[in-house]
């Protein structure tokens, strides 16, 4: 995925919009997880917060029977899932337009996130993700590196979250 710089990027935290991608909500009973995973060619991790990647497609376990799948636009995951539906009943819903993704990176990113997120983000291992809140907005926070995160936020909350990010970035920059 390539990124487009948002209009504010001159502080110890860079905030960028990530180009749109296919985003799917998957629900399947644990007994059928392996069958569906094989059809998709992608591991569906069983541990909440665990991620798996294969051929540009990423799966995040959000619950015992819930995953968030992301892939480049144009990827067809529905056809292989549909082909095994009789053996692995599931719900696969395209939620691509519901959310936007922001990339947050830089030496002060943990301070930025701590200002509005009650979760101990510093304790999140690299390569994991979690559903949490940022101020009053439900988000999915992906930790891609020690100082590199992605934040999925519902499109309707994006202006509020962007405003908070800009405010906190300014406060961090003023304190340095």
Describe this structure in words.
The protein has 176 residues and is α+β, with helices and mostly antiparallel strands. The protein folds into two domains: 3-19 and 98-175, Gyrase A, domain 2 (2-Layer Sandwich), CATH 3.30.1360.120; 22-94, Alpha-Beta Plaits. 23% of the residues lie in helices and 38% in strands. The chain contains four helices and eleven strands. It has helices at residues 33-40, 78-83, 109-116, 158-175, and strands at residues 3-5, 14-18, 22-28, 51-54, 57-63, 66-71, 90-94, 99-105, 129-134, 137-145, 148-154. The strands form two sheets. A six-stranded antiparallel β-sheet has the order 1-2-8-11-10-9. Helix 3 (109-116) packs across helix 4 (158-175). The longest helix has 18 residues, at 158-175. It is elongated, with a radius of gyration of 17 Å. Mean pLDDT is 92; it is low at 1-10.
Q: Supply the helix-strand structural class.
A: alpha+beta
Rounded to the nearest angstrom, the radius of gyration is: 17 Å
Spatial sequence of strands, sheet with the most strands: 1-2-8-11-10-9
Query: Could you tell me how far the N terminus lies from the C terminus, measured between alpha carbons in angstroms?
Result: 31 Å
Secondary-structure element series? EEEHEEEHEEHEEEH
Mean pLDDT across every amino acid position: 92
Pfam families: SoxG (PF04268)
InterPro entries: SoxG, TrmE/GcvT-like
Protein name: Sarcosine oxidase subunit gamma
Organism: Paracoccus lichenicola
